[in-house]
Amino acid sequence: MSATQPGQQQHLEDRLFHHFRGWAWSERARDTSSWLWDFGYDIQRHGLRKWACKDCILGNRPIIASFTSSGLQNAANHLWREHKTPAPEGEKKSTAQLKSECVLKSNQPTIASVLKLDVNKPTEQNIANSFISRFDKQHFQRMLVELIVSSNQSFSFAENPILREIFGYLNPSVSIQHANLSATAVRYKIIQEYNRHKQKVIEVLRDSPGALHISFDGWTSRNKLALYGIACFFRDEKNRPCKIMIGVPEAHRHFGSTIGGEVLDVLHTLGVSPEKIGYFTLDNAENNDTAVEVIGAELGFDGRLRRGRCFGHTINLSAKALLFGKNADAFEQQLSGAEALSDTEYARWRKRGPVGKLHNIVVDVRISHRLIYLFKEVQRVSGFTKSSVSNSQVTRKMEVVTYLTVGFPTL
User: Fold this and answer.
1) Structural domains of the chain, ranges and CATH numbers in brackets
2) pTM above 0.70, yes or no
3) N or C terminus of the chain: which is more exposed, having fewer CB within 10 Å?
4) Which residue in 207, 200, 310, 216 sits closest to 265, CA to CA?
C-alpha cells in the first residue's frame, strides 16, 4: 500500500469508522509486531480487537474485510487473494500464497534449462551448481535496497520492468529465485534495517566521551511531506569527530513547539540523557528559537544559551544582501521574461553594484531567446569565439552559464 498524505489519511480514517460504527482505535494492549498490522487498521469494541484491511478502505470497497486479532492468518490469506500482497522476506507466508507459489514452481525455469545445460553430464552439472551457489539472494536484495536509499529513489523503483529485465539479463537467478522486491518489501526491509542498527546507534551515542551536539532543518520531499532532518555531531570512543543522521520525522506544522516536540521524541527514542546534550546549530528562522526553548524546558536547561547560528547560512544571506540588495529574488522576478528594458527597469539595474549588474545581465540573457541570439551575433561579427581564446582549431561560440543560487556567471 502506498504512502498517503495527511489530508488523505484523515479521509481514509473517516471512511473506516463509517463502516465500523461503534468501534474505536485499539488500546494496543497486546502484541502488534506482526507485519500484517502495517496493512490493517487496529480497532476495538467491547474488548474485541479487529484487523481492518487498509487496501479495502483505500479502494473504497463496499465491504471492508476484517478479522479478529487472534485470526491474522485469515488476514494474510485475504491480502494475497484480493490484493496480491505477499509476506515480506523472512516472514511467514499465508496458506494462499504458498499454494500459488507451488503452482508456479511446477512450471518454473531453472538455471540448467535457461543455460541449456545437461546436469547428467558432470562438467555441465558443475557449471550449473557453481552458477547457483554464487548467487546470494539476501545480498542482492540488500544491495537493491541500498541503491534505492542512497540514490533517493521511490520504493516503486524496485518494480520498474526495465530494471528487472536488466537484472534477469545479468543473472537469471534473480527471477528464478524470486529475488526481485516489491515496493512494500523495500519499505519493510528498510524498517527492518533501521531497527537492526538502532541499538548500535544508542550504544555509540551513550558511550561517546563528550557532549552530543544537534542540528536540524526542514524541507519538503517530492511527495509533499514536511520533513525535518536531525543530525548529531559527537566524538567516538577514540575521540574522532563523527556525525550521524538520527531521525527524519514529519512535522505537519512549522511551529517551533511542533519542531521541538519532534526532536525530543527522537532523542527520547535513542535514550539520550539531558546531561549529554550540548549545543544546537540552526539557521536564523524564528521557529528555531522557539524549538530550542521547548527542548530546553523539557530537558532542564535554558535553550537560548545552547542555541548556535549556522555560520554558512549567515554568510549566504550577507553575501546576497551585499551583492543584490535586500530582496534579490523579487528583483529578478521583475526583470524575468522582458524582451526589452524600459527606462524604469534600466534604472533598477543602475542601482546595483558591478557584480549585481553582471548577475542580472546573465539571468536576463538566459531567459530571453532574443538576447541569446543577439549574444551569438555579437560574437560572429566580432570574430570572438572559444578558439580565439584557447588557440583551438575548433570554432565554437561561447555560452552564458549560471551556477549556484547567487548565480555568478562564467563564460
Assistant:
1) 6-102 (no CATH), 110-188 (no CATH), 208-309 (3.30.420.10), 324-410 (no CATH)
2) no
3) C
4) 216
